[in-house]
Amino acid sequence: MLKFLRKYQLIILAIGGSLLMVVFLLQPVITSFNKSRMNRTVARYADGEKVGALDIEYASAELNLVRRVAPVVFLDPPQGLGLPAEDQSGDARELQWLMLSRLAEEAGVVGGVEDGRALVEQQIMLEAQVFRQTYLPYVLQGMMSPQDFSEQAEQQLSLLRTQLYREVQNAAGSMRGATEDDLWRRLAKFQGAYRLVNMYYSVPAFSPAGARALSKQRNDAVAVDAAVLPGSILAGTVPEPTEAELRDFFEPRAGTLPADDEYGVGYAQSARIRLGWLKLDRAAFEAAVPVDRVELNKLYQQDSQKPESDRRYPGDFASERARIEADYRADRAAQLMVTADQIIRAAVLRVTRTLEKKNGVAELPQDWINTRPSLQSLADAVVSGLAEQGVTLPTPTIEQRDTEWFNASRLQSTPDVGQAVYRLGSRFIPVARLPEEINEYGVVPALGMQVGIPQVEPSAEDSIGNRYYLLITEARPAGPSDSIDDAGRDRVIADYKSVQGYRRLAEMADELRAAAESGGVVAAVDIAVPSELPAGVNRPGVSPNLRVAAERIDAGPLARGVDPRLNAKPFRDAVLAAASGIDPLTPPSALSDSPLAVAVPLPQSRSLAVARIVAPRPVTEEQFRSRAGMTLAQMSVELMMQATEKSPQPSPFSYESLFERYGLRSVGQNTDEPAGG
Fold first, then answer.
1. Looking at residue 647, what is its pLDDT?
2. What are the sequence ranges of the domains in the chain?
3. Which one, of 540, 503, 505, lies nearest residue 522 by Cα?
4. Packing angle, helices 375-387 and 317-352, rounded to 10
5. Spatial CA neighbour of 338 closest among 375, 386, 377
6. Residue 393: predicted pLDDT
7. Which of 247, 274, 535, 614 has the fewest CB neighbours in a 10 Å radius?
8. Distances (CA, A) of 493 to 107, 157, 456, 496
9. Residue 343 scores a pLDDT above 90
10. What is the pTM of this model?
11. Is 146 left (phi over 0), alpha (psi -120 to 50) or beta?
12. Do the beta carbons of residue 269 and residue 479 sit within 8 Å?
């Protein structure tokens, strides 16, 4: 080979030099070609302004960013902007956004950096509302303490805020020459468009008389004492169902959602998984770090060489030792966790690298359950591997939960691992989303994660640096429950009994209404509640002085809150109808002589609502003035939505309307007309 190179070195050098010369000469052409493609005109407005391929690229980047940090903008107006969340044919989605953002800028409603942050905060507040609506019923029913509710809400929102702000920071890092403020300004355009949409839906105006009539309709209320009698209070009086009765009750509801059933019973399952996990606890690693006084002194000496203003440990060594030791432990623990991660990856790779793959899916042998790396073996490998470095670490925590099903909601509420996320560049995948991310092949494509194989690259991490290595042992897509046992036999029996109990209460409605009129709501509760309640069922309480209006129920000064089951339209309508003939200025004392009560069956919650009217609560002048703005704004939106739904014309923010407004004309794909000039 050397002889060959020596013999033909001149020819080789000549050919190599020629190739370099060709590349050198073609480089300006290649650069010009790429620049030409990016400057290619995609569309042209009626006023002559051009939309280039680079504009489309920027619009696509903005849409992808906002999809990650504020997907609320993809809802239909007025809640969102009506932008399609998924790509349309060609560049239609990007062109719609370019026209909508131009319209917002022309209207002067686009702000700066703070407007961009406001959009993200708006998304966080939306998530907070969803959290409250989901978990507040558990608090009211005593299944979750108010303190746990507040702590979980704060933790969830803090984690979400951190993730969303990281998305913006990572996006700025991935765009050449872009600062974080540049990204916030791009998001501000969405907030400006939001503002424009809200202005449009606030157009309807009301006369003073119309405003007062609307306020009266919306805010006039009736004060009541009320109680909710759930069917479960009579469950103890319902005979145990036979297997045939239970099957007849279950089968029609096996694939039904609760909202679609007359009695709010449904056993359709969301996507779910069985799993276990290994946790590397950062605090345990820090505690296991052996402290070396020489190393601590070295850190202190290095810090003492810095300018006074930059020193972390300005005091003497003795006074600063605790801080120095904490920093040393944290740094050393981070290094050890990296080592532990490498040990775990290597242990899994040794077993999985021989597996054959087909279309990206590893083909697992029949005896895989016996030969795959177990979580315990991985934990033991970490302990022994670190012991070789002189670190004695307690065996990492292992949670083996492969006899239980976890859907996204349950997984999210699971301590520790439920708050962890996988980080893929600028993208975050919460562990709680795994059940919904698994495809029909048992794979999470974004992670390369596969059912039956420990997921080690990447690992999941929570906000305080703990790492989690998951092993999903089984996964099922959303669908009907397979059997009574799959849905939960105890649950199905409890539902059956509560439905039977509700039916009995509904038959007693007239009797309980009469009892409430003669002796108050407590008397009705006394009649309905048996002498012995089933285990875990509490005696219903009476909520005093609730304010029932046409579209809501407010807790009065004497009530702790409003049971969500009461805030149902049939109950509100029944109360307002019963009180419709009462003079609004009638005092409570006058009503006590001729009491009025209602007993309203609420099948969706399998309960009977009993209420006795205390007094009308008409809206006052002060209340009208304080609520008028919000009430009229809500009504404006509703009127505009009704008008736009009936109108044959598309929304003014749709692609078709914006296309017509700006006279946008698409340019052929083969047109290389420069976008500038």
1. 63
2. 1-39, 50-203+654-666, 208-217+624-646, 221-267+488-618, 272-477
3. 540
4. 130
5. 386
6. 87
7. 535
8. 60, 37, 41, 5
9. yes
10. 0.61
11. alpha
12. yes
